[in-house]
Amino acid sequence: MKKYLFLILCSLFFSSCATWTGIKQDSSTAWEVIKDLSSDTWEVTKDTSSDIYNGTKEKADELMK
Predict the structure, then answer these.
(1) Which long-range contacts (CB under 8 A, 24 or more apart) does 10-18 make?
(2) What is the DSSP string of 5-55?
(3) pLDDT number for residue 46
């Protein structure tokens, strides 16, 4: 009886574990998403900082006149 219970528990445990191929696929997909998001974020950051710099420079130029 203990043997069958142990066998059933082991089969349930190992059937729910992820495979190495699935883990590699998930991590690859996650890396692509992170790479795309960080690239988009970097572009927005560059644009925003450029806008802020140009706005500040224009205000400083107006004050110096």
Answers:
(1) none
(2) HHHHHHHHHHHHSPPHHHHHHHHHHHHHHHHHHHHHHHHHHHHHHHHHHHH
(3) 95
Separation of alpha carbons 65 and 58, rounded Å: 11
The helix (H) or strand (E) run that includes residue 56 is helix 20-64
Domain limits, the chain? 21-65
Tokens of 36: 């795309």
Say which residue, 59 or 23, is predicted with more confidence: 59
Give the separation between CA 50 and CA 53, rounded to whole angstroms: 5
Q: Report yes or no on whether pTM surpasses 0.90.
A: no
Distance CA 48, CA 42 (A): 10
